[in-house]
Amino acid sequence: MGRTPTRVGVVGYGYWGSKHVRVLNSLPDVEVTVIDRDEQRLREAMSNFPNVRIATDIADELEALDAVVVATPPALHASVSLQAMNAGLHTLVEKPLATSVEDAEALVTAAETNNVRLMVGHTFEYNPAVWKLKEIISSGELGRILYIDAARLALGRYQYDCNVIWDLAPHDISIVSYLLDEVPHRASVWAQHNIGNVHADMAYLRLEFQNSGAPAFVQVSWLHPEKIRRVTVVGEKKMAIYNDVSDNERIRIYDVGVDPAQVDEGSSHDYPVSYRFGDIVSPYVQFREPLMLQDSHFIECVRTGKEPQTPGQRGLDIVKVLAATDVANSTGAPAETGASLVSASGAGNGRVRP
């Protein structure tokens, strides 16, 4: 006798929803229902995955499901997730968890009230290359971390219901929080809209961390000529770069740096620092699809009742940072996030890996 199939509904068959359907449909003992009001999308889903069920309204499917993946536009995350959890369904919500702190808090409360698992889709916290970067930082190889710089840039995928910060920055905020084991307590923003007059399509963020002391700088853009997904960690001893679009060297460690120079006060020709140059090393990181790791972990949590590595509270903390960027952008001054100081236990502690 085989395992009783886990019945999962994927609500929204757009960019991310189609990816979730592909992954979940490949997992053993998982039955997938695609839920979308767009008939063209349902036809596409049936064409790509003939064995999935289709439906147009989640309300009609609640009793036939064990769990849902919410991959709708962000503005619908809260209402769809509440409907699912109030029906006793475990719920995975794409980032951001919600579009307001109040809605995110309501989701966390609903999960506790209904005794169901709420998980947020911070996919990069399930990326083996990010796990490796955290391992390098934690080992002390880089020395004291001076700052982290992240860039997530590309051309296109403009959103109608949120700005570029809410669309792209959740990834990098969750990555740097995971790397530093701490959620930023203050955010500063410079943003601009170049196309249209509604949502900013490029922005720079400065995130401050109370315990680590190392700031993080995040650049996001929908208006950039090349696709960039990069995190640079600058330490006193060494530096490291995580490049997610690299085919074979996603992590590079640079044995380079600078030291204060001992120079004569009267000299006008010496540099104020001395430079160190050494080897560049690229540790081997076996590629495993982060979305596969994330969704497999979600199914495990559904079946066993274990707490997800990126639980609802984690999603709430990131939403608090995003809300602070709205305040900072409107006032021109740094804004407090009110997020938990340490909330980034993350996926890289070994419990997600087989």
How do the strands and helices of this protein lay out in sequence?
Elements: E1 6-11, H1 15-26, E2 30-35, H2 39-48, E3 53-55, E4 67-70, H3 77-86, E5 90-94, H4 101-114, E6 118-121, H5 128-139, E7 145-155, H6 164-180, E8 186-192, E9 202-208, E10 216-221, E11 223-235, E12 239-243, E13 251-260, E14 273-281, H7 290-304, H8 312-331, E15 335-336
Parallel strand pairs: 1-2, 1-4, 2-3, 4-5, 5-6, 7-10
Antiparallel strand pairs: 7-11, 8-9, 8-15, 9-10, 11-12, 12-13, 13-14
Domain Gfo/Idh/MocA-like oxidoreductase N-terminal: 7-122
Pfam family, one: GFO_IDH_MocA_C3
Region (Disordered): 332-354
CATH third-tier fold name of the largest domain: Dihydrodipicolinate Reductase, domain 2
Strand order of the largest sheet: 14-13-12-11-7-10-9-8-15
Give the termini distance in whole angstroms.
Answer: 24 Å
CATH homologous superfamily (4th level) name of the largest domain: Dihydrodipicolinate Reductase, domain 2
The helix-strand sequence is EHEHEEHEHEHEHEEEEEEEHHE
Please tell me the CATH architecture of the largest domain by its name.
2-Layer Sandwich
- Please compute the radius of gyration using only Cα atoms: 22 Å
Topology, number of strands: 15
Spatial shape: globular
- The unreliable regions are 341-354
Number of domains: 2
Largest sheet: number of strands, sense, barrel closure: 9 strands, mixed
Give the CATH level 1 class of the largest domain.
Alpha Beta
Q: What's the number of helices?
A: 8
What percent of residues are in strands? 25-35%
Question: Roughly how much helix do the residues carry, as a percent range?
Answer: 25-40%
Structural category: alpha/beta
Average of pLDDT: 92
